[in-house]
Specification:
Number of helices: 9
Radius of gyration: 17 Å
Helix content: 25-40%
Oligomer: single chain
Order of helices and strands: HEHEHEHEHHHEHEH
Structural class: alpha/beta
Strand content: 5-15%
């Protein structure tokens, strides 16, 4: 498997697509969470799930613990795929990656996404609260994962799976926790934010603050559910929201 395929293992090229949608997962997540999207989104969208190092098919690789080197690595593999209109979707940690990747593309005068989809992540200018969770002792860290609701109890009770999972999640949360926002002009691409009413990680005001990051169209939609609702049982709602926005800017 080539280096590019390592990053996009589930991508199915679609020459007829009007848009490439690059999908970035939440902390601890892999490209498999987007495995059904290509079948469930309009055929005009080529879904490109991004596989970060340290998980699933890249389990043997060390995960990134800081955002800047991850963005640099993504820039190298992404540029050949920007030959047609594209958009970014990021869930929680993935939203932060999407945002900073967009700003890096702009800094280097490359094309930027025609749309930025943000799910369940506070606006980047709002710092994450301390103490940082990635530094918690194992017992407290596991309890924090349990409270977040994204890790099945069967996994939390399985020592072998936990041994594999914890380094990945700690590394991803380090990216979130140690992120340092720098002020730059707002982006000129539309931003669509999606959130949930029972999210313990982010509140509606923190989601709405994303509007400061664009001079273009901004929308926010709120749904019932916890932090992981939209990527799990609420997936159909999430994909419909993306499809609706695609239909709007495809006209």
């Amino acid at each position: 498997m080539t280096e590019k395929n390592l990053w996009f293992p589930n991508r199915k090229p679609n020459p007829q697509a009007h848009l490439r949608l690059f999908c970035f997962p939440y902390a601890g997540g892999g490209a498999s969470i987007f495995r059904l999207w290509a079948k469930e989104l309009p055929s005009e969208i080529e879904v490109c799930p991004v596989q970060l190092p340290g998980r699933e098919s890249r389990l043997r690789e060390p995960p990134f613990k800081q955002l800047s080197p991850l963005i640099e690595a993504l820039m190298e593999v992404l540029l050949p795929y920007l030959d047609r209109p594209f958009a970014f979707f990021g869930y929680s940690m993935g939203a932060l990656i999407s945002f900073e990747l967009t700003r890096q593309l702009r800094r280097q005068s490359f094309p930027i996404p025609s749309h930025l989809f943000i799910a369940c992540r506070r606006a980047p200018q709002i710092p994450y609260p301390k103490p940082f969770t990635y530094q918690l002792p194992e017992a407290e860290f596991l309890e924090d994962l349990r409270l977040k609701g994204g890790t099945p109890e069967a996994v939390l009770q399985n020592p072998e799976l936990i041994k594999l999972l914890l380094p990945i999640v700690r590394a991803d949360l380090a990216i979130n926790d140690t992120y340092s926002y720098t002020t730059e002009p707002p982006l000129d691409c539309p931003i669509s934010v999606l959130g949930t009413s029972e999210d313990q990680e982010v509140n509606p005001e923190q989601l709405d603050a994303w509007r400061e990051q664009t001079t273009n169209a901004f929308s926010i939609q709120m749904f019932q559910g916890n932090h992981f609702f939209l990527i799990n049982e609420g997936r159909a709602i999430l994909l419909q929201a993306i499809s609706d926005q695609f239909n709007t800017f495809a006209k």
